[in-house]
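Milestone M4 deliverable, item 7.
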Amino acid sequence: MSRLQWVDARLQNWARWRSQMAGNGLGFASQASFLNDQPGSDREVRIPVDEIEASVTQEAVESLKVARPHIYAVLYCMYPFGLGVTGTCRRLECARSNVYALLEVGDRLLATWFTERSAKQTAAKEEMKRDYEVAARRMRL
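Output delivered:
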């Protein structure tokens, strides 16, 4: 199985964000990260959640809901629900190989979604820049 590590990392961040959403209501941190631990405590360091990246990942996963419901279900079982491969197999009543294959396809679909989104944003920025430059030239005349 060849998963895309950067997509998996985004999905793990999304899962942490979703669990915060379940606990705190909105998914955003309830307090500043430096207030989480007392000075000198021996607790494990928490991995910070990137809320903006997680909300974009949420949008990407939700885009699969209608077009690819089986991939959507696997992603939810694996990440926010934390069922793992065995639990996902039981819940969706499918073989392990299917779960692995759907995760791989999901990675590819999400990577394409993120890439297309980035290209659209870059094009919009370039258009805005051109419009600004045209407006600036007109103002000088």
